Amino acid sequence: QQQVKQSPQSLIVQKGGISIINCAYENTAFDYFPWYQQFPGKGPALLIAIRPDVSEKKEGRFTISFNKSAKQFSLHIMDSQPGDSATYFCAASKLGGGADGLTFGKGTHLIIQP
Amino acid sequence: KAGVTQTPRYLIKTRGQQVTLSCSPISGHRSVSWYQQTPGQGLQFLFEYFSETQRNKGNFPGRFSGRQFSNSRSEMNVSTLELGDSALYLCASSLRQGLAYEQYFGPGTRLTVT
Question: Cβ contact (<8 Å) for A101 and B104?
């Protein structure tokens, strides 16, 4: 059972454009939603995270939008740059953990064309 | 501050053998989690250790085990290796117990089972 569904699987955006990646979750007990960025040969790096008590969080060019009623959250990358080309993972977890641990989406391979 | 380190970075084993992977968390971090990353299944949670005790466990067979030492360093062991165990094994550390807190990943150990 895939508890976090991520789309699209791959995305090509022109330099300076907005990259949007979406995730949907099923488990209403999830209350922590991070996004990770992974470059080839590296481990995932935490980008930004949100708790369900807010609908939006912004850090630099990265923004998470959260819709609790729809059980969806998304990552927006403004003014996308070639250096943003990487694989992005959304994730979710319950406070305190549990058997599901940190549950990841399948990832989005983002390419920013110069 | 040094990041999460994992050793070895690459490993080739034969089916039926066992393997031990090592993880040193960020200084001061007491929680260590392990994940398996494969192209087909993506990132899957294995287990979390905090203060030398396993706090959470994912849905993996008993061939996968781990432990944590008093200095927070952790090891993961896989016995009776199968071809399907070929994967990138990632370790992540966090200041606090539970998975709803910032986790910092190491570069991973690439295990190939032949």
Answer: no
How, if at all, do strands B104-105 and B87-94 pair? antiparallel
* Alpha-carbon distance B109 to nearest alpha carbon in chain A (angstroms): 10
Q: What is the rounded distance in angstroms from the CA atom of residue A114 to the CA atom of residue B16?
A: 48
Neighbours of A59 (CB within 10 A): 10
Q: What is the pLDDT of residue A2?
A: 57
- Where does the pLDDT of residue A65 fall: very low under 50, low under 70, confident under 90, or very high at 90 and above? very high
pLDDT digits (tens, 9 = 90+) for B53-85: 998 888 899 999 999 999 999 999 999 999 999
Cα-based torsion angle of the residue sequence B59, B62, B64, B65 in order, rounded to the nearest 10 degrees: 110
A28 token code pair = 């209403």
